[in-house]
Amino acid sequence: MPAMPIDPTHPKHTVHQRVVAGFAGHWKAHGDKYPQRFRLPPEELYHLDHVMHKGEHPGTMWGVPLDADPNTRGEMIAIDGTVVSIAPADPAPAA
Fold first, then answer.
1. Cys-Cys link to 68, which of 13, 42, 52, 56 (CB 3.0-4.6 A)?
2. pLDDT the model gives residue 5
C-alpha cells in the first residue's frame, strides 16, 4: 500500500502536535499538573488513536482521557475546568 501523503494543513495531520502543545501549555500554567481531558472531533480522535498510536491505548494519551465530540473543533479541559481551544488555525482566505 502506498504511503498516505501528509497534508500539514489538514486537522487530522496536526492533531498530535496540537494535543502535545496543549499538554505543554497546561504543564507550564498549572505547575506540571495534567489536564482533565481533551475533546476532539471523531475523525481526529480516530486518527490519533489508530494511526498515530496504532491502537495501543485508545481513548487516552499520557493517562488523560480523549473524548470524541462532533460538536468541537478540539479543546482541552484544564485541571481547573477552564476550556482551552486546541482547534487548528483557520485557513487563510483565498485571494
1. 42
2. 58
